[in-house]
Recover the amino acids of this structure.
């Protein structure tokens, strides 16, 4: 079984970097719409669970038909000033739940990927045993999505600069690493500039996926497998 986990905190507490550039109600709507899109897209591919400690998020996820992982309040209690540490602890807990309930593959997706497609999710989850798929953000520094066989063989380290940390940790554990550079996995919303880019990227994506414009070349040209410290 493959399980997709989407961590999601409260809608109003998300995307705080946009607070000075848009009203709270508009930011709430944006975050909720993106989360709805990501959850529904993930559910097209396989079992999906939303990880949160927020009861409003629990209701939101269940109304969409997703499972809920009710994150214990005790996670990250001593790391209140470090939300990334709390996030990683919560995902570690979720990976343990997934493992003991029979999942063989864990996929982690963040809820701010407005261009995400079911094909992106399917490609992310297509991992073999002892393999890790990493999807960097548009800067190439963060990790927007990750998939690996279970049990988890390396520490999760989401946050600034996480792509390099995840890659190095997985390679050190002798896991095969495959980098997925796909627009639907890379483009996230963090800044006003991202919002300004969204419509043009949607238009470009629609154009390049139109069968009339397809050159039938493989999508695998931007996927980079690595094994241990040596190239394949």
């Amino acid at each position: 079984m493959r399980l997709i986990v989407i961590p999601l905190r409260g809608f109003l507490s998300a995307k705080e970097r946009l607070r000075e550039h848009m009203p709270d109600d508009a930011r709430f709507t944006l975050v909720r719409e993106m989360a709805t899109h990501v959850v529904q897209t993930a559910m097209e591919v396989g079992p999906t669970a939303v990880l949160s400690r927020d009861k409003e998020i629990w209701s939101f996820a269940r109304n969409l038909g997703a499972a809920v992982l009710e994150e214990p309040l005790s996670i990250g209690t001593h790391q209140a000033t470090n939300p990334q540490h709390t996030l990683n602890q919560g995902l570690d807990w979720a990976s343990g739940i997934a493992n003991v309930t029979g999942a063989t593959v864990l996929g982690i997706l963040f809820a701010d990927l407005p261009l995400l497609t079911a094909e992106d999710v399917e490609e992310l989850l297509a991992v073999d045993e002892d393999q890790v798929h990493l999807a960097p953000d548009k800067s190439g520094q963060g990790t927007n999505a990750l998939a690996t066989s279970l049990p988890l063989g390396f520490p999760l380290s989401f946050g600034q600069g996480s792509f390099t940390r995840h890659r190095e940790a997985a390679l050190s554990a002798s896991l095969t690493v495959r980098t997925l550079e796909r627009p639907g996995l890379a483009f996230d919303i963090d800044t006003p500039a991202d919002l300004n880019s969204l419509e043009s990227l949607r238009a470009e994506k629609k154009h390049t996926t139109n069968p009339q414009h397809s050159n039938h070349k493989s999508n695998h040209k931007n996927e980079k497998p690595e094994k241990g410290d040596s190239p394949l």
